[in-house]
Amino acid sequence: MTRLLTLLVFVLALLGAGKALAQPTVYVFPDFVQIDAGDETCVEFRTVDFTDIQEMRFSVRWDPEAVTLTNIPVGSLNASMPNLDIGDFTFDNVEGYLIFTWKIEDVPGCPGTAVTLPDEDVLFELCFQGITGYSEITITDDPEPVYVTRLNSCPQNIGLFMGGGFIAVDNKPITINVPFASGNEGEVVCIDLSVEDFIDIISMQFTIQWSPQVLEFQSIQGVGLPWPGTSFNPIPPQGICTVSWFNNLNPSEGFTVPDGTDIIQICFTIVGSCGQSSLIEIVDEPTPIEVTNESDPGKDIGVYKGEGEISVNCINPNGLTIMIPDVDICPGESFCMDVTTENFTDIVGFEYSIGWNPNIIQFQGIQNINTDLFLFNMSSFNTAGSNNGRITVDWSDPSCLGEDLPDGTVLYTLCFASVGGGGVNTTVSIVNNPLDIEIIDQCAGNNIGLNSFNGLVDVCSPPGITLIAETTEVDPGQDICIQIEVQEFDDVQDMAFTLIWETGVLQYNGVQGFGLPGLSAANFDEANTLFGALCVDWSAMAVDGETLPDGSVLFEVCFTAVGDPFSCSEITFLEFPCNIDVITAASNGFNVGVNAVPGEVCVTNPFNFALTVSDANGAPGSVVCVDVAVQNFVSLESAQFSINFDPSVLDYQNLVNTFNLPNFGLSSYSDNNAGVGVITVDWDANNPNGASLGNGTVIFQLCFELVGDPGECSPVDITGTPSSIEVIPANSGGINIGLISEDGEVCTSQVLTLVNSVVTPVACPGDNTGAIDIAIQGGSGSYSYNWSGPGVVPPAEDQLGLTNTTYSVTITDNIFNGLQLVESITVGISAQAPVADAGEELTISCGNISIELDGSGSSQGAQYSYLWTNLGAGLVDPDEETTLTPTVVGADLYVLSVTDNSTSCTVTDTVMVNAASTPGAVVASLDVVTCSQ
Description:
By secondary structure, the chain is an all-beta fold. The protein folds into seven domains: about 5-170, Immunoglobulin-like (Sandwich), CATH 2.60.40; about 175-310, Sandwich (Immunoglobulin-like); about 320-460, Immunoglobulin-like (Sandwich); about 465-605, Sandwich (Immunoglobulin-like); about 610-750, Immunoglobulin-like; about 750-825, Immunoglobulin-like; about 840-915, Immunoglobulin-like. Helix content is about 0%, strand content about 50%. A hairpin with a 7-residue loop joins strand 31 (about 380) and strand 32.
């Protein structure tokens, strides 16, 4: 399935903590498996920090109504663990638990020896068969408590870090990702819960749990889905909030959102103290977890739930303090935040990063940089990653004299604009990524630490609806339709407003694409469209009004671009010539108004310089390259622009110069900020007449390693941030003609992975007692199979009645076309089967007619019997034909048959005996001597 990030972060946190506390970790791998009912899958129990361990005990729990334990493969038991055998396991399938109890020596008290295993080593495997629904596979202390001892600390119980797994039967669950966050005591911290695999969901319910001793509940709201009004029931003293959602727009149809969509924002005030933390968990009490979808509405498909955490920062009395204020704004507003400092004494340098949610606020710039700090200026800021919600600050005083500032001094001012809807918020935080936090108070490099007070940007939920006009570009004469989106469109009964544009740029053509029940062309008054005004007047047919999800398209308004290149028209909403009037079911007839977020349409130059970035995709971990090609590259003197991408999806590798662009070299671009998703290009032809290239010429390639989850994509955009777009033609006097771009996209392909294959060898060569049981992960979770080889049932997932040979299977995803996996699996021979070894090829020595054969490499023991035979004219000594070393007479092919009398299994081997090589005698002819000689 797609990336299940929060659980992986949890496991990694366990691993890191385990190292610090010298505790071993045991975790389930893979942590997610989806199977069909009746199929079997095996999961590994792996370990980390298994150092000098003498004894280990823990319990494993599962839901016995969802899966049943079918096997503990003996071959999976770690051979490096002395005294580990199947007797160390007891289980109860009715209650759904297993107890693992191992000790390195069967002695009372503490053993005298211990064992160490490499990280990621497998302790053992457990195999389960799917029944219905889903089950967590949990390592726990119920019914038997965890007990682990280590050499030199026995009998002290050093404990165990644990990471569980999840088995889904038939249906893929939704994933709820819960992030990690931190803050100071007294601060408000908000976290966004996002979803994956939210496909055709009809309803869901669950409980969110936290520690009320650390976090004081403030608020919770639903986003990204059409949330009913009574979806949340917080009980702050108990540290829980129950959640219940259904598709109230159409209860009989499922609702789908893209992976990564935020669906809940929950806010707390931190009341805990330094070093405390609270898990934020999805639990099933008091409201049990239940999720239903359209394809199987009566079945709970479950939640593959992540686990986040909010931790309390510690205040260092000697550290530098930096404070970012809280700000309350409304959608579409611009604002600035003064960043102030305290305890700024003898500081000679600082560095840190600042982060925010770029989907809610957009970075605009930095102002009021404090001039009292030597050499503190705009060069101290790296804004290359601002499109991704990150900038860095790095200042140092080369004089090493140290600087002092009064408490409350403004270091600089950050400016942003609201780009999201209402009712959301984001923190503007001091973070340690991509630049680590470091505060230096002396030239020797003493890091005194930082106390950061982060700012909260709270975007109001305006009383009225929010109308958002699209921003785009268009060529002269081209027709274009602009989408009008809505937010906060709840129980609206009546709506009227005016849409305004510039008639010198855009000529009105009509409206289409109506997304509101009852809205049609009849609701639009076109009398003033020649003057750039369109009136809208609509009333709901339903008494309670109409509700639309945030981001819904209300309608499209269509134009022809009649303006000159580089001319622009704002698309906005006014109350002239037609008044704004919005009535909701809750407003008692009062006008709640419109919150306008204008758009803009700009006319481009169709003959303008253009850049095109190609698309690419590949398997996770692979390296792919995209082409950057040009159009209308005619007599250009210089070009400057930026390229942005998501570094969490694409790990930049290198730029490949195609040498098609004259004078383009290492100095023509910078990839110093590739870690934050930015590459800048600054090229100069170094020729007064510029350079020209044919349309479609590739000027360079960008190569990335795909580090995102399967199915995850990142745009590769041509932008003006951080380097502005400047394209200068030759002999133009420095006129910037700009550029147009067609951006690319790079995606990590969905992949299928064979996560497990359990092969049962044949008991005897040639028998049909072999079997193959496979488990597949990835893609949609719905697969078809095509096996080849003797005795197979081609479409079956698992195979029985196989012989000892190699089999091939092609697995095809039923949803994602073209997604396949081909695997070859060999069925071997059981280690308990007899072995026949007739020895190496032999040659009878010269002058002899017999030789002794050697079958001593065969299985030996009381249960084995032997028989030598020949296939030609040779002869086996009748008195020795049932021994391993018989005497044979004559050259021939001899056959050794070895039979295990306890199983009646017979195996054979052959040896070739060659005849002796007889030397030959050759008489040379005699010369005749005559008298004449």
